[in-house]
Amino acid sequence: MAARGVLRTVAGGSHLFYCPGCRGMHRVGPGWSFNGDYDRPTFQPSVLVQGVEDLTDEEHGRVMAGEAVAPRPFVCHSFVTDGRIQFLTDSTHALAGQTVDLAPAGGET
User: Which top-level group of life is the source organism from (predicted)?
Assistant: First the structure.
């Protein structure tokens, strides 16, 4: 894996970018078009990441005590255009509906 501009490149032709909404990396694979600009990338189509949120410490304690805890689904849906992430309103994190600059690949904040 190598940092280049605001992206990290990985084997198989994929790219990673840091998502400040999820506070983690998102992978964009060969199925997306890429404009070739590592400082101001554009990917098409949109990037959709779905899953479940990690347990909080309190929830972990409840699970360990035998209590059932319902998983909390999350969605991060965005367009990456000219080095900016436009978070769509179906995203479940605090940046839903906002547009922010991509952070440098080696410098997540």
Answer: Bacteria
